[in-house]
Amino acid sequence: MTDLNFEQLKTDFDRDGFVVLRGYLPPAEVAEMWDRLHRYHAEVQGPISNGEQTRAIKGMNVHDAWYRNYLENGRHIPLMKHLLEEDLSPDNVTWLQQPKGAQRTQPHYDALGSYRSAPSGISLWIALDRIDLGNGCLHYEKGSHRRDKPVGYPLPDYDEHNARAVPFEAEPGDAVMHAATTVHWTFDHVDDRDRNAMVFVYWGASSALDQARAKRSTSAYADGTTTL
Fold this sequence. Notes:
This protein is of the alpha+beta class.
């Protein structure tokens, strides 16, 4: 995708708290992302732990220079900076898989419990499989980034079927960028198809560090000294 309209995407992001990028990765880059994931699983950490499918591997940038370079220099960074209207502080790269029978992702927002105080932030979520209502696609509440929200996971008394809730069904290579304060969740799988996705997470560079939480964080960037 080379014809991104930054101004329209900014309007949509400010209104909804997320933007959908159809065909963000062309097939060759989806294949490259799969190749890097298979290498990581073979050389660093596999997808099976204690005989069960691992739901997520976080901090892949720590052990693999390719992911670190993608996190720090990927072509998505100028758009993210435009959407947030500030520089970025990288946080981590995560692989997500939600096999059938695994606990689903409950309604939450990423800033909850962060080592940043009152953080702005943004994530790039890239689908590697066809992901739809049958295998646990993401759902977002439009405009939730602009309202006050309670603290807690899952969000207490949250209505997942409210009028502003929308699913994000994706083909391989489709992507979404969402704000750290946008409420999102998944529902349980109803079939056995895989649900692989990659997530690249950032904080707004202006967000102040919570020193106590930063000391407990596993992010390689928790000291806040890296700015993009």
